[in-house]
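User: Structure please.
Assistant: Input sequence and predicted structure:
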Amino acid sequence: MTKLFLYKARDAPIVAILRRGAVKDIWELIQWNTDTDTFTRGQWLTKAVMNGAYNSISPDGRHFAYFYSSTRDVFKSYAVISEIPHFTASLITDHHAGCWDAISFDTDGAVIHTQSSLGFTKKRPCDLPIRAHFDESRRYTGFVESFTDSRGRNITVAGATILANGTLLYDTTSHTFQSVACPIEPLAADEVVFPT
């Protein structure tokens, strides 16, 4: 059954929507600008075992941190940082991350990981700071089940829909995964813009 997970950025009008498809282990990432109510559909991630409640958005709304496995073996899992609305890794753990690990951002926007001994491989140009130690008190996830947006609307999720003050705002029911003959090329290095 389709389910939505929302992650609200603290310092920007951006919400990352993680949509679990009707078929198990298929996910879609969507960017929502709450000021303009524009929804930008991103990539799909298939054959991914993920718990939506354990992911997070950076305070500035640019990056998404997620923990996934392509198998049911939690010892073959990775912690990943991507640029919303894409799953393509900007940073990925060098080694397998266990199910007890967490990847997130601290309140300053730096990447934090419970296993500070694990290194990250840069897959794309990325200047995100990485904290050496995980401090739960400084952790920012942005995960919300409902919230009041900057326009004063009460935002809630009902199944595959998002409601604003009880009125339908966005419906993901028709989002269906379609295979393509040619895989989508990742963004070129000169198309990726990172904060300075």
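Residues 179-196 have pLDDT under 50 and may be disordered.
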